[in-house]
Specification:
Blueprint: E1 5-8, H1 13-25, E2 30-34, E3 54-58, H2 64-74, E4 78-81, H3 88-93, H4 96-118, H5 122-127, E5 129-135, H6 160-179, E6 183-188, E7 191-192, H7 201-211, E8 215-218, E9 224-226, E10 228-229, H8 230-243, E11 249-252, E12 257-259, H9 260-274, E13 287-290, H10 305-311, H11 319-332, H12 334-341, H13 344-353
Parallel strand pairs: 1-2, 1-4, 2-3, 4-5, 5-6, 6-11, 7-10, 8-13
Antiparallel strand pairs: 9-12
Helix pairs in contact: 1-8, 2-4, 4-6, 7-9, 7-11, 9-11
Length: about 350
């Protein structure tokens, strides 16, 4: 039996996609350690949950004893650390959970990994990796003419979310330098694709447009994000496990810069095409410009040269193909949307959008 890989946060958006893709490419075992916050959803993993190579552990990375126990029991060859609080707007409304999970949780996970690594046999140590999945938001905001973020761009986080991820990146770096933990950091741009919780912009706009609700664009809609299809992110992470060098950072992004306004318009055009008889077509009439996010970063853009040159990665989807797949997935999964948008989601919609002056009932 091979040693498994140990995934934290595998019931969330990127983690679920990572696990589903993992079992397409490999039959190597995998343990999913997840607290199942509002963002974690085991339904995402139903298609692989009965595989003998898959294990789920319900646990919190802030619970050191639980992490120690899981590492002792499963003896992983690598840790993929996805678990985090991940939504910028929530970090503005209630930052504390972000400090708790993203900073303290990562610290405790690093401590557990350090103790685990120390007792491995030499041959196992050679193979062991800790992959820390992070974001381009740690680099702050770009002006229109600035070059894209590279691995040497200084950190300048602007939101509580970005600051908490930056702090976690610094801790990982320190554990490499101080303790020799073979960790690798990846900083990825905005992901989109199946199973993304509809608090994030793309699935929020798709699900609202389908229901005939308003499409709340913050500010004037000219903020730019660099979009990457989630499957391309997952492929990059598998490559980093195979070929990435401990202590290195790799930026991941698809060279797909788009303004928020153009993304929402593209979603509306796709829905007009795919649901021509909808009572809500043309969907663009649902667009409404609402009060901006405080401290809203203007532009993110990733320079992924290092990943492409050193590890041979290439994004397979462009924005048009990836967005079409994504819209189609949401059209085909109304029960999934219904399930995740009932209950506590309604309260979040009120908390975040009522004060923006948007007629944005959930
Ligand atoms: P998500 O919010 O969809 O999922 C987070 C998962 O972590 C959930 O399953 C949740 O239950 C779990 N979790 C939260 N707190 C936990 C804890 N204390 N212990 C154990 N599990 C816990 O997030 P996502 O969008 O899938 O992002 C995953 C990672 O990728 C995050 O670290 C995020 O910072 C990073 N990232 C995300 C993006 C993006 O566009 N979504 C881009 C770059 C990097
Ligand atoms: P989001 O998906 O929250 O990702 P991030 O803030 O991590 O980049 O938001 C993407 C962009 O969309 C960001 O510029 C904020 C904007 N946005 C809106 O205009 N309206 C919305 O309702 C949301 C959630 C985001």
């Amino acid at each position: 039996m091979h040693h498994p890989i140990f995934v934290t946060g595998g019931a969330g958006f990127i983690g679920s996609n990572f696990i589903l893709d993992w079992f397409v490419a490999s039959s190597s075992p995998l343990v999913n350690f997840d607290k199942l916050t509002y963002a974690g959803n085991l339904h995402n993993l139903e298609s692989i949950s009965k595989r003998p190579e898959y294990r789920f552990v319900h646990g919190d990375i802030c619970d050191r004893a639980a992490v120690d126990q899981a590492l002792r029991e499963h003896r992983p060859r690598a840790i993929f650390h996805f678990a985090a609080e991940s939504h910028v707007d929530r970090s503005i409304v209630s930052p504390e959970a972000f400090l708790e999970t993203n900073i303290r949780g990562t610290f405790l996970l690093l401590e557990a990994a350090r103790a685990y690594y120390a007792q491995l046999a030499e041959s196992e140590r050679q193979q062991f990796r800790f992959l820390h999945i992070s974001t381009d938001e740690v680099y702050g905001s770009l002006n229109a003419s600035d070059p894209a973020f590279s691995e040497t761009t200084p950190y300048a986080p602007n939101s509580p979310y970005a600051a908490s991820k930056a702090a976690s990146d610094h801790l990982v770096r320190a554990y490499v330098h101080t303790y020799g933990l073979p960790a690798i950091i990846t900083n990825c741009s905005n992901n989109y694709g199946p199973y993304q919780f509809p608090e994030k912009m793309i699935p929020l706009m798709i699900t609202h447009a389908l229901a005939g609700k308003s499409l709340p664009i913050y500010g004037d809609g000219s903020n730019v994000r660099d979009w990457l299809y989630v499957g391309d992110h997952c492929a990059a992470l598998r490559l980093v496990l195979e070929r990435g060098l401990p202590g290195e950072t790799y930026n991941i992004g698809g060279r797909n810069e788009r303004s928020n306004r153009s993304v929402v318009e593209a979603i509306c055009t796709l829905l007009d095409e795919l649901r021509p008889n909808s009572a809500h077509a043309p969907h663009a009439k649902l667009i409404s410009y609402v009060k901006d996010r405080p401290g809203h970063d203007r532009r993110y853009a990733i320079n992924a040269d290092k990943l492409e040159r050193k590890l041979g990665w290439r994004a397979r989807e462009n924005f048009e193909s990836g967005l079409r797949k994504t819209v189609q997935w949401y059209l085909e999964h109304p029960a999934w949307v219904e399930d995740v948008t009932s209950g506590a989601y309604q309260q979040w919609m009120q908390d975040n959008y009522q004060t923006r002056g948007a007629a944005c009932e959930a």
